[in-house]
Amino acid sequence: xxxxxxxxxxxxxxxxxxxxxxxxxxxxxxxxxxxxxxxxxxxxxxxxxxxxxxxxxxxxxxxxxxxxxxxxxxxxxxxxxxxxxxxxxxxxxxxxxxxxxxxxxxxxxxx
Length: 111
Fold this sequence. Notes:
- The model has no long low-confidence stretch (mean pLDDT 89).
- By secondary structure, the protein is α/β, with parallel strands linked by helices.
- The protein contains 5 helices and 6 strands.
- The protein starts with a helix and ends with a helix.
- The strands form 2 sheets. A 3-stranded antiparallel sheet has the order 1-2-3. Strands 4-5-6 form a 3-stranded parallel sheet.
- The relative contact order is 0.13.
């Protein structure tokens, strides 16, 4: 009985972690359809907006930014993403990316 309980608890834990993974969460919520971006039930007409700028910071920023760029592609005009050391998303087209200290900000994050 203890082994089954342990297996069930691990399965529940893994499902919770997977559901909260930043890249996957944004991919579930953000859609591009008929010249508009949908975020959940909100619809934003891209021709009305003009340019899309991406700004992010923190532990989840790398995965979330990568998902936005994967969904919107060249529609992202530019932006800046700061992630903790070792977690920068790498090249994201026109979006600048860099690493900085976390959770206590440092001069790299200020830059």
